[in-house]
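ugh ok fine here u go
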Amino acid sequence: MKLSITDVLRRGLDNTLANWPVIAIRLIEALVLAAIAIAVVIISIVPIFVSLGVTTVSDPETLAAAVIQLLATKWLILFYAFAISCVVLTVVLVVHSFVEAGCARIYIDGERAAGPAIAGARDRYRTYTFVRWWDAARDGGWTVFWIYNLIWGVVGIVLLLPLMPLGGAMFAYRDNEGALACTGCFGLLALVLICVPLAIVASVWTQKSIVVAMARDCNARDAIRVSWLEVKADMLRHVIVTLALMAISIAGSTVFGGFSGALQMGSTISKSGSLMLAFMPFRIVLWVLSTAFSSAIAGWLLASFAALSPEPVGRLPIAVGRGGEA
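structure:
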């Protein structure tokens, strides 16, 4: 008997809260990756714009002129910036993949420990130990990495299909401003209508593949294949769970963003540098709380997908012989 959406979300929430150290690990990951990104921008990207005469991003004309100059005459610098961005994104994805693999194993073990009963104490989900998380991250990190690359690579290829004719149409109407504007607007609308459902399906597929890979000890290709079959057989529940948690995430981010925006507006209206500095610690705290909230929602989603098994809840099948290759 399949669990209802409410039961799935409840089990996922209980699993997430019972294994709360996983949220702390996700928060640390976000802080570390943010620090890496800021450091790379300061060390590698900022000097490029300074050398082009850009001293402040509040001057859009100077920034636009610098970018145009960069594209036209200094393509080697542009290639350098692109290469740096690719390296940073790869590092970010690798780190996130290893963290996600460890988190998935904790939530899967929590489902197994809790058993199929709907009611019960939240403590029955508690399975977290750092050693358990670390072993799972080390064993399944590369599998999760290839899951991300394969699924979102397919999504990128699909998105290129409408972009190519759109780019050709805009190039053909480049001398007709009215036709160019209409083509761009309709093209943008079409892309949104394609991108949003495609992104939701890709997100569902990715989360399910991670759970399948870590629960059944299979490689990325097998996890992607099996998870797609299971998602197609139970698409409604997977999509509703994803959309429900996306709505909660957006609502929470809006609240935190509203408080941060109010502090920013207050310091801007007063035009006081001292007030801006005084508000800075509060804005940092809000950012940390917002990141922790997002980390909790991400864990809740993964734990809920662990509960969305075609097998009896708490009895996820295990296959022997998972490889780390794609």
